[in-house]
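Task card 7
Instruction: Convert sequence to structure tokens.
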Amino acid sequence: MVASPARTFQLNALSELELHHVEAELVTYRDRRAVRLVESAGPSDPAIAILSGSDFKEGVIETEIAGIPRQDAPQDMRGFVGLAFRVQPHGARFECFFLRPTNGRAADQLRRNHSTQYVSHPDFPWHRLREETPGVYESYTDLVPGVWTPIRIVVSGIQAQLCVNGAEQPCLVVNDLKLGETQGQIALWIGAGTEAYFAPVVVK
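Output:
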């Protein structure tokens, strides 16, 4: 079987994004062209920017992301930033890996253990997964807030892996994606109280 060629979403224009509860702008951040996302006022639905024309079932998604808490964010905000995949129309359902950058080097070990997270919207938010299956859908990895962080998501069937900072081995492994073996779009994702930056996205 011949592998499909890689596709790069350059994020050169905001017209390439379908925005849901986010405000977006093109900026230069730490010497790199980027899309900046912050939450927009309104409902507390997921804040995502869907990559127009993306279509993904399985393969590899690579990009670099950076997240920090907004200056006006409450103290318990962590700069949540990640990627959603197999996104259904208008963001109704999706799988997602995200980072909590301020947890990566926290002095508290329990906070460190919550550096990465898998969620499945809408039925499996982080707090449900943590309560029902502690430690299964989140893990530690070294993170620095506001710094460009390479991530790689590998998806096959109902399995997905998250690799961070160029590591060959995943820091988080999910063997039971909650939406099953679905297909959909790819989206930039942010959590509450976050200012986030996204580099071009490569899909293989």
